UniProtKB/TrEMBL annotation:
Subunit structure: Component of the EKC/KEOPS complex composed of at least GON7, TP53RK, TPRKB, OSGEP and LAGE3; the whole complex dimerizes.
Cellular component annotations (GO), alphabetically ordered: cytoplasm; EKC/KEOPS complex; nucleus
Protein name: L antigen family member 3
Localisation: Cytoplasm; Nucleus
Principal place of residence: cytoplasm
Entry keywords, A to Z: Cytoplasm, Nucleus, tRNA processing
InterPro entries: CTAG/Pcc1
Protein family according to the UniProt entry: Belongs to the CTAG/PCC1 family.
Biological function: Component of the EKC/KEOPS complex that is required for the formation of a threonylcarbamoyl group on adenosine at position 37 (t(6)A37) in tRNAs that read codons beginning with adenine. The complex is probably involved in the transfer of the threonylcarbamoyl moiety of threonylcarbamoyl-AMP (TC-AMP) to the N6 group of A37. LAGE3 functions as a dimerization module for the complex.
Pfam families according to UniProt: Pcc1
Highest classification ranks of the organism: Eukaryota, Metazoa, Chordata, Craniata, Vertebrata
Length: 98
């Protein structure tokens, strides 16, 4: 699922970044809009940042505790799988014409 994943520990914080490739910019946009509303709960000190490029969704986590990072990443991957299954079920998004 992820084309690139890197993790590190700096200043007693845990970081993880993944890049999720998509076939088109439209699908990247759909995934970003679908996953952005999910904010992290206030406990645990985990910060999740989503961004998009032409063909990939980038997600970066920064957490104080390894456990909260693991829970956040697991939850995100579950939601991402659902978004990808939905995109597959409805087919390639149609181009919008004016």
């Amino acid at each position: 699922m992820a084309s690139c994943a890197k993790g590190s520990i700096s200043d007693n914080r845990f970081e993880l970044t993944i890049e999720v490739p998509f076939p088109s910019q439209r699908e990247v946009s759909i995934a970003l809009q679908s996953l952005s509303p999910d904010r992290e709960p206030g406990t645990g000190g985990t910060i999740k940042t989503l961004s998009a490029s032409v063909s990939a969704l980038s997600v970066k986590w920064n957490a104080v505790e390894a456990r909260s990072l693991r829970v956040s990443v697991g939850s995100f991957l579950d939601h991402l799988a659902l978004v990808m299954e939905t995109i597959d079920a409805f087919g390639q998004p149609a181009l919008q014409c004016n």
